[in-house]
Automatic annotation (TrEMBL):
Family (UniProt): Belongs to the MSOX/MTOX family.
Protein keywords: FAD, Flavoprotein, Oxidoreductase
Superkingdom in the source lineage: Eukaryota
Residue ranges constituting the FAD dependent oxidoreductase domain according to the UniProt record: 12-388
Cofactor: FAD
Protein name: FAD dependent oxidoreductase domain-containing protein
Source organism per UniProt: Helicostylum pulchrum
Length: 439
């Protein structure tokens, strides 16, 4: 039996990390006026933080979740709030382009079939249109090569699309401030260094400037930095994932104008992409095992970002993988330079599920992490679920995200390491490598 107890009304709650999990939680706790909590968020930088996973031009918002009914339901609820938020902002932060989801074979595969089953069981069969080769090429002629290459079974879900995630973070940040959440930000004053404890009880945090901050409850939401700040018992590791941008010509923009958010065989190849945005940028990314950056001493992987290494691009082998896949799937990109690239960091959990639970080493520390590369879409709702867990409320989400000791699949910790050696395939490329070889 866990000794964890909900905080009393009027408690001071510290949240470490002002990204997707942290801000959404702060907003939920602060808007529950019956509890009268004092909520204080700490972060290393001004929000949105430059290298936070949640700070990006776009993230996919989808309900298509294979066999995870809980995630599908949370995504559907989140989409309702995304639509409400669009009414609160001058420019939409959520774009309902629909989702075009491929199986990478001539028939839909297990993951996609599970998604369809749950969406239909939830009463939304009318959102789905299954598409076969000819229908795909008729509607999206620029995908003919993909179809000819056997990526020819797909479905279109008319609900879903993408959010402008940095704008969404700004929106929630403002809502937090409007609801009385306090922020302590900065590389000394806001930077968590260590927990302050009395026995197994956490009584506060110490920041880099040496100040101790008392709290009745601490919630760790430091994203991919979490395992380098707290012993996560090897249940979460920081993995670097690849993002590239293109700036298509006017002609290509016209050709691709009906392209929705797409998953090209997401459950196996992992590539996905976005329509061209209003700034003329088309983003493509890869959801994969990613890269590690082990620190000296204990080997824990820590995020290496363009804030810590400002000349970083992406590893050579990633450029090769992107070009190879896009040649099969969207060859129109062959003539485009990669205009921007980034390694962005997941807190990868062993089973891909979030971990939102009391930490087993302490009586009263909550961790909310293990995003595994798919939490941004839940920004509008995840805080409500995390707040329930903080308040010790038992439900399907608290059980699914409970602290667990999962035996990893073979090779889970064994991923390529970002390298600096001149001949390493994982060294960062120069701008010459990012240019199209077709020009
Ligand atoms: C390449 C990539 C693509 C993705 N695509 C999608 C997608 O399409 N759809 C989707 O739903 N999700 C997507 N995600 C996942 C999504 O971005 C994350 O799940 C989400 O941002 C996780 O939120 P977080 O709050 O845990 O982490 P972050 O948003 O990274 O926030 C963590 C915060 O903790 C702060 N912090 C760290 N250390 C300290 C410290 N010592 N003291 C104080 N603060 C600290 C950081 O500065 C940061 O602000 C993607 C992620 C990546 C990397």
């Amino acid at each position: 039996m866990s000794s964890y107890q909900a905080p009393k009304a009027g408690s001071k709650i510290i949240i470490v990390g002002g990204g997707c999990f942290g801000l959404s939680t702060a907003l939920s706790l602060a808007t529950d006026k019956s509890k009268n909590y004092t909520v204080v968020v700490y972060d290393r930088e001004e929000i949105p933080v430059r290298d936070a996973a949640s700070n990006d031009i776009s993230k996919v918002v989808r309900m298509d979740y294979g066999d995870s009914r809980l995630c599908m339901e949370l995504a559907i609820d989140s989409i309702d709030v995304w639509n409400q938020w669009n009414k609160e902002t001058q420019v939409p932060i959520y774009h309902n382009t629909g989702m075009l989801i491929f199986s990478g074979a001539s028939q839909l595969c297990e993951n996609e079939l599970h998604s369809l089953k749950h969406i239909r069981n939830a009463g939304h069969a009318d959102w789905i249109e299954e598409l076969h080769g000819d229908q795909i090429t008729e509607r999206y002629p620029y995908l003919e090569t993909a179809v000819n290459n056997g990526i020819s079974a797909a479905y279109y879900n008319k609900i879903g699309g993408w959010c402008n995630s940095s704008e969404a973070i700004k929106h929630v940040y403002k809502k937090c401030k409007d609801n009385g959440v306090q922020f302590i930000l900065g590389k000394e004053t806001g930077n968590f260094e260590t927990l302050v404890c009395k026995g197994k009880s956490v009584t506060g945090i110490k920041t880099r400037d040496g100040t101790t901050h008392h709290a009745d409850r601490v919630i760790m939401t430091a994203g991919s930095w979490t395992p380098s700040l707290l012993d996560m018992k090897k249940q979460v590791i920081a993995t670097g994932q690849i993002v590239v941008h293109f700036r298509p010509s006017e002609k290509i923009k016209q050709t691709l104008k009906n392209l929705p958010v797409w998953f090209g065989d997401f459950s196996r190849a992992g590539f996905y992409g976005f329509p061209i945005n209003d700034d003329g940028v088309m983003k493509v990314a890869l959801h994969s095992t990613g890269y590690l950056n082990p620190r000296q001493g204990d080997g824990v992987s820590v995020p290496r970002t363009q804030s810590t290494n400002d000349q970083d691009t992406i590893p050579l082998r990633a450029v090769q993988e992107f070009r190879e896949y896009l040649q099969l799937f969207l060859p129109i990109t062959e003539e485009l330079d990669i205009t921007y690239s980034r390694v962005c960091w997941y807190a990868d959990s062993v089973d891909g599920q979030f971990i939102v639970a009391p930490h087993p080493d302490y009586d009263n520390l909550i961790v909310a992490t293990g995003d595994s590369g798919h939490a941004m879409k839940f920004l509008p709702m995840i805080g409500t679920r995390i707040a329930q867990i903080v308040e010790n409320i038992d439900n399907e989400y608290s059980r699914a995200w409970a602290w667990r000791t999962v035996q990893p699949r073979a090779g889970f910790y064994d991923r390529p390491i970002l390298g600096d050696e001149p001949n390493s395939p994982t060294r960062m490329v120069t701008s010459a490598h990012l240019r199209s070889s077709k020009l």
